[in-house]
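Section: Multi-chain targets

For targets with more than one molecule, the full set of components is provided together so that the structure can be written out for the assembly as a whole rather than chain by chain. Components appear in the order listed by the source. The example entry contains two components.
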Amino acid sequence: MNARIVHIASNTFREAVRDRVLYNLIAFALLISGAAIFVGQISIDIERLVVVNLGLTAVSLFGVVIAIFIGIGLVSKEIDKRTLYTVLSRPVRRWEFIVGKFFGLAGTLIVNTFFMAIGVFAALLYVAHKFTGADTLILIALYFIILEFLIICSLALLFSSFSSPLLSAVFAFSLFVIGCFADDLRGFAALTHGFTRWIATGAAYLVPNFSALNVISAVAHQQPLSGQLIVQNTLYALFYTAMALSGAVLIFERRNLK
Amino acid sequence: MTSIQRTTIVATTCLVVSMTACVLLLRHLDTIRPQAVIEDVLYIDSPKVVKRASLGFEGLAACLYWTRTVQYFGHRHHDLERTYHELAPLLEITTALDPQMFPAYQFGASFLAPMPPNGAGEPERAIQLMEYGIQHNPDNWQLYYNLGFVYYTELKDYKKAGEVFTRGSEIPGAHPFMKLLAAQMAEHAGDFTTARLLWSATFESSSERNIKQNAIEHLRSIQVDEDVTNLQAGVTRFGERTGRLPYSMGELASAEHLPATPVDPDGNAYVLDPDGRVLVEHPDDFPFITKGLPPGYKRTGLPKFHTQS
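Its structure, encoded as tokens over all components, is:
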């Protein structure tokens, strides 16, 4: 990777840490340990199910909130503080700035997810007293959650490249909610006819498909996941991220920063 | 070429390639995730909770649930599924959100009550749905018609059906056939004429495509059942007269003074088997017939639907 992108990415990561983003880990730790102790005492036979479901859902939601609320300010904050001009006055291209910011945010989320994953496994060990082979499926679910974060980071950056932080947050969060119902959206599109069908199907394919990346329930029930699903989801997330980042680069290249 | 132009070309190419790849991958992902599209899931199955969760926008929520109901039924019907477990809660939620959503009641009468594979096989819940509708819309004669329809077609409770049709016929503005149906229940319940009258009324009073198609299929099947019954009676008469079975349908038609060889609604001649049974040539084309089926017949494949009246 280009050295300039690495510098921008590492600075973005440092900035996020300085902004106390990783403090969310304390809230997560409290939630997951509290839940583990609580379900251990009141539930029968579903302790593992509750911890896996709650843990992975919390990892996903915490990450999504961080991705959106940091992602939307990545460009606008630099413009407001006028630090962007300092960066772009050096031999740094605008696309490098966008890509660097993306990797910085993605790195922050991956580190955050790593610590949360430790929390999930610790809680699981507490309630189940041992790990089983099926617990490795949790790693796949965590991997899919990271893929989800990559898509959301790229979308937040896309909106941040042309819109205000508030509107970017609304757009990104709306798209996240719509993406969770992407399967239903395609189902509704299939019911329409003629020109409407083209438009509806196009829109249904354009929104991110988060439902394919959500395997939390399947993992909680220890259902196997096919290798094909892992490969396809990886490719999908990478292509979608590339698409959104390309859009962000195209817009940011033409943006008048004066 | 400037640096900006180069970046634009690369980014545009990347955008187009990625978008195409996303669509192709998503289509493939749908095939490896069997439950991907149209999951038979009710996120919330309590009408009261859905009503509260709709934050006062019950009308819109009812429209969404109604669309989902039609979508759910259509997909399961198309996929030849034999169960419709979510149909009752979907209809109950739809009508709880909007008690004036009349197509939902009619849909319930047509598809909630009939036994699988033609419906959900829940006549009691269909009756509850109609009663709920009548409670909230006491001046709507069609709801009485739907309720009587369920009593007549599924429960064969002609007395109850007659009572409901009578109650409905007393509502100002009720269609005249309500009085006719009430009278028919008392004297001719269970005969072909009454059944035909009922399904014709369903066809005429509905604008919903699935309901109309269902009515057409029933009317076609009633015609076949009546034809087969009459022809079978002809075979018996022929046997009594001649002491043997007719050799062919042509011989039977001639003996019965029919103008031509009798044909089903699709124009295919009825078949006479060596045991003197009158059979339908293509029974798969008539999903609701009870007569003229070959011995040991089991329905295969997707039933043909005929949209013309």
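The domain at 47-212 of chain B is CATH 1.25.40.10 (Serine Threonine Protein Phosphatase 5, Tetratricopeptide repeat).
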